């Protein structure tokens, strides 16, 4: 059995290893150092471009739970991270150079993996594409030709997402503009005139992140940062994303002075997106300023907003449930290109893509963990998110189905987080259940 993996980053390296360990001969294409990018500094595999941390290892955190799941699935990169670990508290922080050196050594030493240093511009028939947000123009053209010209997005305008359980429901009301759609598709945070003026002052004066040259993008109307709107004119947001027209507060019968709308991100209503609030504010500033929005005083941010150059696929519109192209169930996508954010999320999709491609080459179906796990919840989001509003996502507890039954037993042997006292205890219960369910699911592999 033979397969091609394109991209030697976290996802591609993990995918190549997973395939090779299952008896598949792998050709791993990495264009660096023959063809560099504006972000990478070396030609090594699995180079960490941004932070040097894989975030928390505690299973009561989303990233800690995801890492625990990936260790169960046999991740190769996480043990390399352990070996390259530097002090970072509960975070899995690593020495970047040692980490990438360890990964490259293991990949090159595997008898079933051949590393080819050249740009790949054509999609394989049996393979995994994991080229990340800086996918070369040649390959991007091939992807667009195969999946459609609208498949790839090149500017990533992300609005914050907050947890439903952290909202002050007494200050918000459910209503779609002009009463269209379902009544609970949107939640509305109403401002009076004084509150709006204070918010605009804070927004316009807030500290903004200045990105690297490769990360800078020109603003366009569909990607205008909310703070840039505020600087252009005090009333600009009120005629844009904070427009109150068609959203009367049922408690007063009148339209508020301004309103921030929250759009449902998942079917269960556990995650809510701040509509039109893409931003370049630094994370502490987002927390400080956006907490001024009525109902968001104690908001838990599941994802902060950003605007940067980033190539990613509209996964729910173009890919199948296991992140395959819809006309070839042996061609998988993995990593940030699929619309996941973060190191652990990227290597997780690479690992599962490698497992599933090996299964397909052996004539077996591709499998995805249940949404009661963090990895399965992430895949569910990539499959079920609204294609018209799709944005990349990182691991968070809002992704996890907290009530679904275990597939084989029909019920949970480990209780859900409901009824647990405190957020920490609740998430420990959810994590315990997720790991038990993943172990049960793995029996089918």
Structural class computed from helices and strand pairing: alpha+beta
Measured between the Cα atoms of the first and last residue, the distance is: 18 Å
Biggest sheet layout = 6 strands, mixed
Can you tell me the CATH topology of the largest domain?
Answer: FAD/NAD(P)-binding domain
How does this structure look, described?
- The chain has 445 residues and is α+β, with helices and mostly antiparallel strands.
- The protein has 2 domains: 2-156 and 310-444, 3-Layer(bba) Sandwich (FAD/NAD(P)-binding domain), CATH 3.50.50.60; 160-304, Elongation Factor Tu (Ef-tu), domain 3 (Beta Barrel).
- The protein has 12 helices and 17 strands.
- β1 (2-6), α1 (10-21) and β2 form a beta-alpha-beta unit.
- α3 (77-83) packs across α4 (96-109).
- Residues 406-416 have low confidence and may be disordered.
In a few lines, what is going on in this structure?
The protein is an alpha+beta fold.
Features:
about 450 residues, six-stranded mixed β-sheet, globular, 2 domains, alpha+beta, Elongation Factor Tu (Ef-tu), domain 3, 12 helices, about 15% strand, FAD/NAD(P)-binding domain, six-stranded antiparallel β-sheet
Question: Which helices and strands occur, and which strands form pairs?
Answer:
Elements: E1 2-6, H1 10-21, E2 25-29, E3 53-56, H2 62-73, H3 77-83, E4 85-86, E5 91-94, H4 96-109, E6 113-116, E7 127-129, H5 137-147, E8 152-158, E9 161-163, E10 173-174, E11 186-191, H6 193-205, H7 226-232, E12 258-264, E13 271-274, H8 283-290, E14 301-303, E15 306-313, H9 315-318, E16 324-325, E17 328-333, H10 343-361, H11 374-384, H12 423-441
Parallel strand pairs: 1-2, 1-7, 2-6, 7-17
Antiparallel strand pairs: 3-5, 4-5, 8-15, 9-13, 9-14, 10-11, 11-12, 12-13, 16-17
